[in-house]
Design goal:
The complex is a heterodimer of chains A (203) and B (255).
Chain A: E1 6-9, H1 17-25, E2 30-33, H2 36-40, E3 44-47, H3 53-62, H4 66-75, E4 79-83, H5 85-89, E5 93-94, E6 109-112, E7 121-128, E8 142-147, E9 149-150, E10 160-165, E11 169-176, E12 179-182, H6 190-202
Parallel strand pairs in A: 1-2, 1-3, 3-4, 4-12, 5-6
Antiparallel strand pairs in A: 6-9, 7-8, 7-10, 10-11, 11-12
Chain B: E1 5-13, E2 16-21, E3 24-30, H1 31-36, H2 40-43, E4 49-54, H3 61-72, E5 79-82, H4 88-97, E6 101-104, H5 114-123, E7 128-137, E8 140-145, E9 150-155, H6 156-163, E10 171-175, E11 199-202, H7 208-215, E12 220-225, H8 235-245
Parallel strand pairs in B: 1-4, 1-12, 4-5, 5-6, 6-7, 7-10, 10-11, 11-12
Antiparallel strand pairs in B: 1-2, 2-3, 7-8, 8-9
Helix pairs in contact in B: 4-5, 7-8
Classes of the chains: A alpha/beta (203), B alpha/beta (255).
Chain lengths: 203, 255
Amino acid sequence: MPKAKITLIDLGYGNNKSIINALKYIEIDTVVTNNEKKILNSDMLILPGVGAFNTGVKYLEKFNLIETIKETTLIKKRKILGICLGMHLMGKSSEEGKKKNGLNFFDIKFEKFSKKISIPHMGFNETFSKNFSLTRNIQSCFFYFAHSFKASINKSKKYKTLICHHGENFVAGIEKDNFFGVQFHPEKSQTNGLKILDNFYKL
Amino acid sequence: MLQKRIIFSLLYKDGQYVQSRNFVTNSIGDTDWIVKNYNFENISKYIDELIILDISENKNMNNFLKSVEKITKKTFVPLSLGGGLRSFSRAKFFLKNICDKVVVNTGLFSENLDFIFEISDFFGNQSIIASVDYKNIKNHKYIFKSNGLIETKIKLEVFLKRLNQYHIGDILVRSIDRDGTGQGLDSSILNDLNFNKPYIISGGCGNYKHFIEFLKNNKISGISTSNLLNFVGDGLKNLRIEILNHKINLPKWGL
């Protein structure tokens, strides 16, 4: 059997180079595409994303990828990892763009941080979990964050989560079956981040 | 809790990487030298962020991008690029291609600041680092632009107040007097950092004590050093270990 590849979904407006470099560094072959057929036939998916929630959904629609991603993950049961906005896109909705809905893999909403704390939450921060699969074998779980919207812990209790604190506890990582999301940027989080990608690949 | 940052800044000038002292530069080596002889892949494991500034007089964005690509191929930290940035199109070129943030310095003094709003609108406030350089003149701090060559006659404290209204993320404050001297950071700067912004200070770091003294201060989010030669070999590694030994919140990762 040929070695499994990661298919990186290219929404066409963000910078994918760092993720590609990171996967290459840990010797994982990567296909970068927004082609429906290639995505349907993939081994596993990474959904990256920068910018606003509405923009992300708009580009998913533009390339006709909503149903494609759903079929690949819900029916064909391929693994998917959403990174930063990619994780938001896997949720139900976001205050950042009220007119659009996400892929709804996780029954969570993304909201603004409370006003008392400095936003965006930007920089390395520590995370905690008892059961999150992707942080396995990482000793000190520090990762690089850059975001203004977050999912609350209390509405995510039915999922395995990774927790971070910035003024309040929020979801830094979430998982259910073959669905994974991380709020931080593994490709910008030194060896800790590389390990996240490697764990996802090997799960 | 958000962690403090050690930021490494590289200065690129006409295909060469340069060392700066009081904003006067000396060439150190080209891109390949930095990658190979300076062993950048290893050095980057001990920093929290990387800034690369193009200070060439005649800028060639594609050559600069190629050099940055080579240098950062095996580095996995947030990357910021800058140098002569005063348009949305140039910022977009860098942010779409390779980096997480752009550094705006002289551009902050443009008559038309629409490009800053355009960048923050498209990429978010966090994607902009506002950078100001100052000199102490008769007990006051004055801002200089264009690589420290042109005096703006604007007082630093006045401008930092103004910056508080802008749609930006980090604020990088560099002392031209201390730049490259290794004499330590300018402690008088602390009086001027009065807003709830992530301030990065730079200019004068020569040893780990200089970092520790300032990283302990609540006002300081990070310290930037561009002293290539002081931190050659195991310099950055030892620096990080010392800072961690002093119980300062720096992120930890496997090495």
